[in-house]
Amino acid sequence: MDTTATHTTTAAPVVRIRSLRRHYGTVAALDGVDLDFAAGTFTAVMGPSGSGKSTLLQCAAGLDRPTSGTVAVDGIGLAGLSERRLTLLRRERIGFVFQSFNLLPSLTAAQNVALPLRLAGRRPPRTAVREALARVGLADRAGHRPSELSGGQQQRVALARALVTRPAVLFGDEPTGALDTVTSRGVLALLRELVDREGRTTVMVTHDPVAASYADRVVFLVDGRVSGELRSPSADEVAARMAGLEKAPC
Ligand SMILES: Nc1ncnc2c1ncn2[C@@H]1O[C@H](COP(=O)(O)OP(=O)(O)O)[C@@H](O)[C@H]1O
Ligand SMILES: [Mg+2]
């Protein structure tokens, strides 16, 4: 905590997105997006299929380069970075989890979690790996391979791996999309807890109104543009808004 900040100071957002455009040929996947993700907040991104949700996350996480516009993470503009610097920033400051977990099958849970530290050329301190696994409730599974873990447990390992470097922001693209309802709720409760307990800034794409209701804010995308948002949303409010968006004429 910065105790020198005055009460009137508004903290800079962890992620700042301005006039973001990403065109694929004639398709405008993102068509002018302005968004801020404040520190310690949990945001859900929703919208019809093809509305640009994944593209937004990929651009915000430095996995894709926008056609125009800017993304800043932790005050650092991504556009000006060389590939090498961008890779380093992604590795150190940005966590990403995918629907399909993307764990390496031949490595144990602990080895998967240690991977980002190894890639950064650090010798992974065993305590950091153990702590990361403990934070997701898997302290007793360190030696298990992905095939020996349930889907929910695999996603928890992926979360521990994404968080082991203590990134400024965690992105998830449908992180509960491959999980059954009960397991999915467990992972969402964990994401919520990490935000509340550790101040993890989290941005999650989902198509599930119940998943979105775990967030502080839901941002709706339509045709590559922000079409509105809800604060402290209930699942019913989100479902009603989504039904409206999906019925909207093209
Ligand atoms: N690599 C790509 N090449 C061409 N078009 C793409 C590519 N990625 C996404 N698109 C297009 O951009 C639009 C937005 O895609 P996406 O961000 O994946 O949407 P969502 O995640 O909301 O379903 C879609 O029309 C999609 O077909
Ligand atoms: Mg998508």
Automatic annotation (TrEMBL):
Pfam families: ABC_tran
Keyword Acetylation set for record: no
InterPro entries reported for this sequence: AAA+_ATPase, ABC_transporter-like_ATP-bd, ABC_transporter-like_CS, ABC_transpr_LolD-like, MacB-like_ATP-bd, P-loop_NTPase
Keywords recorded for this protein, A-Z: ATP-binding, Nucleotide-binding, Transport
ABC transporter domain residues: 15-248
PROSITE patterns (UniProt xref): ABC_TRANSPORTER_1 (PS00211), ABC_TRANSPORTER_2 (PS50893)
Gene3D superfamilies associated with the record: P-loop containing nucleotide triphosphate hydrolases
GO MF term list: ATP binding
Classification via PANTHER family: ABC TRANSPORTER RELATED, IMPORT ATP-BINDING PROTEIN
Protein name: ABC transporter ATP-binding protein
Species assigned in the record: Streptomyces siamensis
